[in-house]
Here is the input.
Amino acid sequence: MGVIRAIKQNEIDRLITLVTNAYPSFDATKEEVVQPFREQVAATIKEPGNSHFYGYYRDEQLLGIMRLYDYTVHWHGSNLLAGGVGSVAVDLLHKKEKIAKELITYFLRHYRNQGAHIAFLYSFRPDFYKRMGFGFGTEWHEYRVTPSTIPNGQGKERLTFLTEADIPDMLALHRRVTERTHGMIAATDQDLKRLFSMKQNRIVGYVNGHGLQGYMGFQYRNNHSKNDFHNDLHVNQWIAEEPAAHQAFFAFLRSQADQFQRIVFYVQDPEFHHLFDDPRNDTNNMIPPLSHEVRTTGIGLMVRILDAKRALSTSTIYPFGNVDATFTFEIRDTFLAENEQRFTITFTNGKPALRDFVDKAPVVRMDISDLSALLYGAVSLNTLLNYGKATISDAQWTQTLRALFPKAAFPVCDTFF
Here is the structure.
């Protein structure tokens, strides 16, 4: 066992070495890459704000790092404390020594002890974190369409390029959208500054008489090794408070047909292809028996409930159906021992209340990873039951259990960490 504590200023060089070795995309030979990162780490250690660097030490030697994020997530109508973790790195000479396990365990207990219900991360390997009890979150979809197939919108004259001076208005807009969108994490000033720090980013905003009502971020990317004029436009940020903002962005993108071969969207909406006359991408792939490929899909964000008993016994974590019933829940959690629990809850008009164990109550069994995805709204109870990822001891209570967990609001999260 090692010691985990906050990283100090005089340990930044060692931190950078760990990051360099753990992430091949971090090119330590380029000062324009290293120096901004060094400054960011130093500023974060000096004034942490909502993020903190922690290190794993053995005999005073720094062998692993992680960055923790204090977040507020809009969760089924309530604003809840949540924790995020990123930049997990382990010394190459000390892999397979359970250092990452100790870091993630510390992360989970840190936020559990603070009263948080939820933990988030972006996985480098989904199976690795699934075994740690994280469930799959919202999927990201990549659509690659020709500009001419984008809806012919209007209102392009209300678009303007944004700068860092517009961050307060962007932050206010993001918070308004967050307050009505399940799964969204409240953006911070640092989140939006990061958008502008990426030199290839361009950000346009939709402004009307009520101020900033939407913004869209995009980049140009060449798609031909021998033709500098063969480019795609990649849309990586899209926040809109009203339909008119969507229409203006559509008009702008459609007007780019003379310069870009494809408009590439990264979205979480699985129904996004209904916007286009021709949603096919540029692979020309056919999917059996007779379907055209329109998107590619990826799993990145993963979510974990930190205390199953506490989560299921409060009405803020899931919009339970109007059901009167008593169930015993057996939740498997092989990673966080204190969360492997067996408890009984009585629901009255869908309102949960913990009670003493009831021997004859039907028993619902599932893994914490699947429970986490269910409560997040990323998967339905019907799916878990149909594929055997959740079971109930008495089949005659299946329909009641389904009614208790109706399909929840689809989660959306545009925060990266």
Residues 271 and 366 are 29 Å apart (CA to CA). The mean pLDDT is 95.
